[in-house]
Every structure is written in C-alpha cells, then in structure tokens.
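Hey, can you fold this?
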Amino acid sequence: MYIIHSVQELKQLVSAAKSAGKTVGLVPTMGALHEGHASLIDRSVKECDTTVVSVFVNPTQFNDPNDLNHYPRTLDADCRLIEERGGDIVFAPSVEEIYPAPDTRVFSYPPIDTVMEGAKRPGHFNGVCQVVSKLFEMTTPDRAYFGEKDFQQIAVIRAMMKDLGFDFNLVACPIVREESGLALSSRNALLSEDERETAASIGKVLFESRRQMADRDVRATHDFVVNALNAIDGLEVEYFDIVNADTLQPVAAWDEAQRVQGCITVFCGKRPVRLIDNIAYKAS
C-alpha cells in the first residue's frame, strides 16, 4: 500500500493504474476512520481494481473554527485500517497541497443545499464541493463511494457532478450502526462512554417512529421524535425534517412522495458534540 502526500504522486499512481487497464475507486474521508468507512473501502475493493482513500480534514467546510480544531485526527490508525481492508493508496495531503491558493469558487444548488445542514452551517456545502471536486479532478475515478449517513451531502455532490460534467458513478452506501443503533461517526470519538450510551437513543427513537408511522401523520411523527429526544438528559435536537428524499423539501403527508426521509441533527453531551442521522420512512 502506498501512503502519499502530494497531488503529483497521486496522479502518477492513478495514471499508472489506468494505463494498466485498471479501474479506480475513490473513498473520500476526513479520517478518524471507523467501520462505516471500512464498509466503503470494502465496497470499492470489491468493485474496483485500485482503491484510493483520501484522508483530509477540509477546513473550508467548517463554519466553526472550534469544531475544526477538535475534529479527531488519527492518521496512523487510519492507514492500518485501510491496509487491513485492502486499500491500495492513501492520499493524506496537507492543506497547502490541496489549496496552494484560496479556492474562491462558489457552488450553489438550491433548494437542496439551502435546507437542513445548508441552513444551519452556512458555507459548509460550498466547502464540501470545493474539496470533493478537487479530489475528483486529481483522481479521475471510475466510482466514488460515500456513506448515506451524510444523506444531504450525497444529493449536493450529485448536483455538483452534473454541474461540472463528472461522468462516473457515485455509489451511496448504507449507514453502519453500532449494536445500540448509534450511527457510526468520526465524531463519536469525542463522546464519553456515558454520552455514547445516551446518543444511542437517537437511532432508537428514529426506528421507533418508523415502526409507528402507520398510526401517526407526518406532523405527529416529527413531534414524537423531537419531544422524545429532547426529554433525554444530554440530548438537544437542532432540527428534524421529514422530506422528499429526492428534492429534500419538507412533506406534509406520507403520500406526497415515493421516497420520504427523516433527517436529524442532535447535540449530545457537555461539549456538546453535533451528531447527524437519518432514516428512510418510505424507500420507494
């Protein structure tokens, strides 16, 4: 496995792989890897000849400097996991390597990037599009793998790909959860054991709301989730939106869309740690 830090090295290795007729899969990450990331690597290794995993904490997608400073960084452990899962190339660049000059590009894809995370984290998706578009250009992959925990992010990246003419497959992979139901996240490393136990209620309440959706309309389901989580000491819901899974616009009734998703962000613990999750109420 190659561990590289420069764009030039990345392009050389990818070019050599493609010249040999190999397909290339890209797994973009911000590090602090867990089994959710591992599932993306597994999928790429299964479907592609060469798997590139980027490990880069992208400053342009953080609107809170404190959040950026506290984001976990575990490159040595990340490289071990990537090698164990069969990854071929780890691309771990510096900020200066990705941004030799300020990236002044502006990406805007309303309404999908102006709701939920877009409303709560101004500039976040612009930063995501900046770094992901750069990684796509550097790697020219045949497939790129993203986790569905970042449900809205996938929708924004698909819009960006169409806008910029990227013609390859974005593969959306299912959320991986702990046995407790807690969605795996790099931010979970910032939780104490007690806070981790508390955070498991997010998934439990979402799944309970889906089990009972036949007896509740959309508004009642929304209120059940918000009230149940806010009643738990150590949790505070920032938002919970039940939306058309394709447009990300709110729905007022279950039959308004073929696919309906519930997307939530909850603050957990004393620091607090911001956790996101989502659930499909209607998959088709």
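Oh, and this one too while you're at it.
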Amino acid sequence: MLAPTSRLVELSHEISAGLVTYPGLPAPVITPHLSRAESRSHYAAGTEFALDTITMIGNTGTYLDSPFHRYQGGADLAALPLEILVDLPARLFHQSFERGIGAEAFTGQDLAGTAVLLHTGWDRHFGTSAYVAGAPFLTEAGAQVLVAAGVTLVGIDSLNIDDTESGGTRPAHSILLAAGIPVVEHLTGLGGLPDRGASFSAVPPRVRDFGTFPVRAYARLP
C-alpha cells in the first residue's frame, strides 16, 4: 500500500452499511455474494477472495449530481468529461453565520474555470439528526452569479446545495445543472484547505442514464 501524502486532503465521507445520508432515502445494504470460506472451493489451496454486493441509492455519502439528475436529456454520469472533474483550481468560501450563501460572497471574484467549494462546517453534524434542520445552502442569486462567473463545479459540505426547508423549490440545482455545472454535496474536511491554491477532484463512475453517484472527493495542496 502506498504511504499517504500530506499534500492530499480527504474530502469524502465514508460509506458503510446502514449509513443515513439524507433522511428518508434508503441506507446502503452490503451483503456477501461469495464469502471467503465459500471461495476456497473455487481456487487453489491458500487462495481466497471476498465478492460482495452493495445496494444503494446514488445519493449516498459524498456524491456528485450531473445535469441528468435534474433534466431529462441532460448529461449523465457517463457523459461528464474528466476535464470538469479532475485537478480543478479550488476556491474556498467560508460561511459561518447566515444560512443562505448569497451573491455578495462571490461578486467581483475571478472564478472562471474553478471549483467553488462552500465551507460551512455543517459536516460536523453528518450522520446525526442535527444535520437535517437549519442546514446552510446556496441561494438562487448566488447560483446565478456563479454561472455568470463561468465556474466549472460547485461543492458544499452541507445537507444540500438548496434550501430543503423552502417547500420543494430547488433553484440552485436548477440553475447550476442547466448550465452544465456539476454539484458535489456532503463534502467534509474543507477546513483543511487554503482559500486558494489547492486543486479539487471528484470523479464518479461512468454510469449511463444515471444522474447521481458517490465520489471519492479530494484536494491536492499546493
């Protein structure tokens, strides 16, 4: 196993059986397809493998939303080019007081081609009942400014990029995904990044006709 490097920062939550990411959605179920003991009859003496099955909704752990998640005919996971998922210049924005992250946070910033990462600190509640109520989010005006600025990707360490207590409206998802900008939700560890200078990566598998899937999100420090 390769030794970890201090220049890489883990930004994903661990997925395990029973994990509740978003209340009301099913938790992952992990079951053995072929146990190590059962596999011994298939291989030479001393050789064994474990083959397991995981059943989960795409919205599990830290995941990426593609345009297909919101729009029929939008780019699905298989259609996303690596150029908009890997080694993106990261710009970190901190939000500590107001729930809604508005346009004023980004006005006048040069954000073209960047991954805008919204650091709210809400990840400290992940997996608890406190994670659900009062979660920070990106406002409609904030999303509009980011699209106009030409950002490549937007991520947040909160329950949702939108206000889930607004009666079902999802303006941030709608605006960003309509512009072809992927959204990464339920990030963690953003406090370990500088405001600028790091690079961000979050890559889902190439699944056709699928809109959302967990990612191993990470940053490379300068």
